[in-house]
Write a structure and sequence with these properties.
The complex is a heterodimer of chains A (about 800) and B (about 170). With about 800 residues, chain A is of the alpha+beta class. Chain A contains 18 helices and 33 strands. Chain A is globular. In chain B, helix 2 crosses helix 5 (about 140-155). Chain B has helices spanning about 25-30, 85-95, 105-115, 125-130, 140-155, and strands at about 5-10, 10-20, 50-55, 55-60, 70-75. In chain B, a hairpin with a 2-residue loop joins strand 1 (about 5-10) and strand 2 (about 10-20). Chain B starts with a strand and ends in a 13-residue tail after the last helix. With about 170 residues, chain B is α+β, with helices and mostly antiparallel strands. Chain B has 2 domains: about 5-80, Ubiquitin-like (UB roll), CATH 3.10.20; about 85-155, [2Fe-2S]-binding domain (DNA polymerase, domain 1, Orthogonal Bundle), CATH 1.10.150. Chain B is built from 5 helices and 5 strands, in the order ββαβββαααα. Classes of the chains: A alpha+beta (about 800), B alpha+beta (about 170). Chains A and B meet through helix 1, helix 16 and strand 33 of A and helix 1, helix 2, helix 3, helix 4 and helix 5 of B.
């Protein structure tokens, strides 16, 4: 049970307050970017490449331009005149806005139509004739650096092959020595597939350039409006769009999951078109365009190895990654971290040595490397460590739960220095796993499994006990394009005691309008219902780096608490003035200051705020406002213990998730209902790549499942009934002890599911299956083991 | 070649000239300026555009506006009445059945038809019943809960608790 310090009326931390934003959503009054309609607005549509790698011989727009209502067909050559045909990526690579001569992946933008109506723009799209000279693409990342592979990035002078970068961390030689001497070494090759966030709202914008004022208002589905404003100014400052002339408005967002962090070519083309024509230009992509061209997630090929003793002590791990980045490195990572937080891959276990390395390559696939509800590549790392841990348990014949207890970092070892350089802030991994085991009645479940195996039934139990790393991040290490990854809150309390607070983050469904209000309510005692939260307008909100990587509560949430504490300090001064006592003689309880020993002498926060405008002491600044920019001293390390139980049909190999129990530890919880909702959603985005989702390309670089007809986003039928709970281990360095929750389940669920399926197939000699694990994959694996010669059913 | 059509949406008549190829969802969003119905895909897979036509749920991206002439169309904007919100709206809000809100209007209208046919559906009936509507945020647990709650409200039965349940 979560204890609350405030009354339900105040609604501070720990209350399952109903969400303040929901009224507009359930009435259809949300305001998403496609709902923005401006006078004289034009519509943009995009011609895309049918080929993965081709020279553009000619673009013939003449037929398109004959269609009444078509104003322009914009090509790379048009943008080249303004030096707007390319843009920088977040990883200091470059990306075409529109190609001048070569297309690098299927569905790449080739030209843009600007027309008076949506349907006319689409007609014109079909009328543009593009002549291509098709070339043999590089599709398989393992062959990207073969001698006969073409060098893809001929636009980069120093690029002599398709290798992008090498990265490593850890103790290479010592780790190798441990592996050489170890009693047990296990190794698996895994692919964490290329997947797509596929938020139900696609990406889009309305670029509204006012020629008279030389001012751009950009309505845009962005998770990081301030960073976008700065990027626009950096890229287009030379044509007059300096930062004070740019306003980015991120309206309601229909899901983000990292896919709305990058700048896509469509945004830049829309800005350029509005700039040149002087009218608002709307661009809303189709789902198929979104799936086929916008940033992918994952696509890491990992060789994972673990060394240990025969009785189950983990000694070291080694991981080697091949990262397929597509045509350019457009990963959404902090600048100094080419593999994001992959180095968290030593997991929840206490051992001294690890070595990890990664190489990235270019291929003829769309660029990307975004989150998919995950903090910068944590999911890849967690999958590798949780799978290889299970593989080790299998090898030595030890129960995977027992092996985890044996190796957990213990509660009293925190803060814990990991062999790859992180300082884990806090954790109680044993408590989480104990609760998960108790919930599923683990021992009985194993007995049941033994019985079912005798009957030839395929039942598996899978565990995942993971550590996340979120809340980027401390300014000494974390920046994006040089901008430090702090975040901000500004609170203004009006004379009547009601407030508005603005943030540098941007909710995409996480419920900030409720949870931020609860943090301020906790600190100031002003009821959460009286606090309006605003985000997403760069003209009014304080600067911040946005919402992704579970960073909103760790950064902006902390900023809210500290800004509120500044105001509480001011309230204390006002109370001392009004009650004519010294500040030390005052006691705070949520919502009021009273005189120690004389509780009848008190002033409510509302009275004190009113006094700040009507009766403030001489020498004190009037008003009741505070701002804080929070630079976190460390990251936060949420953790979880997940157990999945599956049964596999012995004839069709259909996988039935019978139970899934998720115990999370995200530190102190702001709103249990919202936190649980985040866990539910994250779990479904965990089962998705584990069993259903993968972007598949053929040898010619054609995407084979680029629509929602064949890219399988789980429905309510595929999604099991999630059972969730929590342990609470507060972050010691975070002002409210919170850690962030939105992504843990997406990170932790896939290995639990994979481990359960592999466990079900254990009697047949299967040690690993790559996700997504489908009935077809199980069939192939069993066939290979020669166990399908006779029926499995006992 | 535009054609004048009249559509009755949420009890109000909208007369507009449209091309025969105009999709119903575009008529609703652009011509009638009712932007509560959303577009989430181009293959009739996501259900964000779900509305009611004569009380039956339909994906309005797969129907031409002209086909809907003479029928009663209900969108999310037509759910609440002067007497208050529809039970399904209350269900979604009280049970945290939505996060980003983008799939919510379509999901609610689908649920309205479901509950019209059977106000006391089992969890499995609800899950299959909304399997034409995708939600990327919620993991569906609380959508199921929201629909059960609305069913109880419609039946006049005792309302289930809206507090989150945790394993302890």
């Amino acid at each position: 049970m979560i204890q609350c310090k405030t009354s339900k009326e105040i609604g501070g931390m720990g209350h399952s307050m109903k969400r303040k934003e929901d009224d507009r959503f359930v009435h259809g009054k949300g305001n998403y970017v496609d709902d923005v309609k401006l006078p004289g607005m034009l519509y943009m549509d995009i011609v895309r490449s049918p080929y993965a790698y081709a020279k553009i011989k000619n673009i013939d727009s003449s037929e398109a331009l004959k269609i009444p209502g078509v104003l322009a067909v914009v090509t790379g050559k048009d943008l080249e005149q303004y030096n707007l045909h390319w843009m920088p990526t977040l990883m200091s690579d470059t990306q075409m806005v529109l190609p001048v001569d070569t297309v690098m992946y299927q569905s790449q933008e080739v030209a843009a139509i600007i027309a008076t109506e949506k349907y006319i723009a689409r007609d014109a799209r079909e009328a543009v004739r593009v002549e291509y000279e098709v070339m043999k693409p590089v599709v398989n990342p393992f062959k990207a650096n073969d001698e006969d592979a073409p060098v893809l990035r001929t636009d980069k002078e120093d690029q002599k092959d398709n290798h992008i970068w090498h990265w490593e961390v850890g103790q290479k030689e010592e780790t190798e020595k441990i592996f050489n001497d170890a009693e047990v070494v296990v190794k698996e090759q895994m692919h964490i597939p290329r997947i797509h966030v596929s938020s139900i709202e696609t990406c889009g914008c309305v670029a509204d350039y006012d020629k008279v004022d030389n001012h751009l208002t950009m309505y845009m589905t962005t998770q990081a409006p301030h960073a976008i404003r700065t990027v626009i100014a950096l890229v287009a400052g030379h044509v007059g769009l300096t930062e004070e002339k740019v306003r980015v408005i991120s309206p309601d967002i229909g899901g983000g999951f990292g896919g709305k962090v990058p700048v896509y070519p469509g945004y830049v083309i829309a800005i350029a078109a509005s700039f040149l024509i002087g009218k608002p230009v709307k661009w809303i992509e189709d789902r198929s365009e979104n799936l086929q061209a916008d940033s992918f997630a994952r696509d890491y090929h990992i060789t994972a190895e673990m060394a240990g003793t025969k009785d189950g002590k983990i000694l070291a791990t080694r991981m080697k990654v091949l990262a397929d980045h597509g045509y350019t490195d457009a990963s959404a990572n902090p600048s100094k971290f080419p593999t994001g937080m992959f180095s968290i891959g030593t997991g929840s276990y206490d051992y001294s040595h690890a070595f990890m390395e990664a190489d990235a390559v270019y291929t003829n696939k769309p660029p990307g490397g975004v989150a998919y509800r995950c903090s910068f590549r944590v999911t890849e790392a967690v999958h590798a460590i949780e799978r290889i841990t299970d593989r080790y348990a299998l090898e030595i014949g030890k129960d995977p739960a027992e092996l985890r207890f044996q190796n957990f970092i213990k509660k009293d070892q925190f803060p814990y220095q990991s062999p790859t350089g992180w300082e884990y802030d806090s954790g109680d991994y044993e408590a989480g796993l104990k609760l998960a085991l108790k919930t599923v009645e683990y021992d009985k479940l194993r007995e049941k499994q033994a019985q079912m195996r005798k009957e030839g039934k395929l039942m598996g139990i899978g565990l995942s006990t993971f550590t996340e790393i979120v809340g980027a991040g401390p300014s000494k290490d974390f920046d994006i394009l040089g901008i430090k990854m702090f975040d901000s809150a500004e609170i203004r309390v009006h004379p009547t005691g009601k407030a508005i607070a603005r943030f540098g983050t941007k909710s995409q469904g996480q419920g900030h309008e409720t949870t931020y209000a609860q943090i301020i309510a906790e600190e100031l005692g002003i009821p959460a219902k009286d606090i309006q939260i605003e985000e997403g307008d760069t003209d009014t909100a304080p600067y911040g780096l946005g919402t992704y990587a579970s960073r909103s509560t760790p950064t902006a949430g902390a900023a809210a608490a500290i800004a509120a504490r500044k105001l509480r300090d001011k309230a204390r001064k006002l109370a001392a003035h009004l009650l004519e006592v010294s500040e030390d003689d005052l006691e705070w309880e949520p919502g009021k200051f009273s005189v120690k020993g004389a509780p009848e002498k008190s002033k409510t926060i509302q009275e004190l705020v009113f006094a700040a405008y009507t009766n403030h002491p001489q020498g004190m600044e009037a008003g009741f406002e505070a701002t804080h920019y929070y630079d976190p001293p460390n990251l936060t390390f949420p953790s979880g213990a997940y157990i999945c139980v599956v049964e596999i049909d012995p004839e069709t190999f259909e996988i039935d998730v019978k139970r899934f129990v998720a115990i999370d530890d995200a530190g102190n919880i702001i709103n249990p209902m919202v936190a649980q909702g985040q866990v539910h959603g994250g779990l479904t985005q965990g089962i998705a790549p584990a069993m259903y989702e993968e972007l598949i390309y053929d040898d010619d670089g054609n995407i084979l499942n680029g629509t929602l007809m064949d890219y399988l986003v789980p429905t309510a039928v595929e999604s099991p009934n999630w059972e969730t709970g929590h342990t609470v281990t507060p972050s010691p360095h975070h002002p409210i002890g919170a850690k962030g929750i939105g992504e843990s389940p997406t990170v932790g669920a896939p290995p639990a599911i994979a481990n359960a399926i592999v466990d079900a197939l254990k009697p047949y000699g299967i040690t690993h299956l790559d996700i997504p694990i489908t009935p077809a994959k199980i069939f192939e694996a069993l066939k290979e083991k020669g166990v399908l010669d006779k029926p499995i059913v006992g | 070649m535009e054609k004048e059509i009249t559509l009755k949406i949420n009890g109000e008549e909208y007369t507009q000239k449209v091309e025969p190829r105009t999709l119903l969802i575009h008529f609703i969003r652009e011509n009638a300026s009712l932007t509560g119905s959303h577009i989430g895909c181009d293959t009739s897979s996501c259900g964000a555009c779900t509305i009611l036509i004569d009380g039956k749920s339909a994906k309005s991206c797969t129907i031409l506006a002209i086909q809907a002439q003479g029928k009663e169309i209900t969108t999310v904007e037509g759910l609440a009445t002067t007497e208050g919100v529809h039970p399904i709206q209350e269900g979604f809000k009280e049970n945290h059945g939505l996060h980003c809100g983008f799939c919510t209007p379509g999901m609610m209208l689908r649920a309205v038809e479901l509950l019209e046919k059977n106000p006391d559906p089992t969890e499995e009936e609800i899950r299959w019943g909304i399997s034409g509507n995708l939600c990327r945020c919620t993991g569906y647990n609380n959508i199921v809960k929201a629909i059960k709650y609305a069913g109880a409200k419609i039946r006049g039965a005792e309302l289930p608790s809206t507090e989150p349940v945790f394993v302890e």
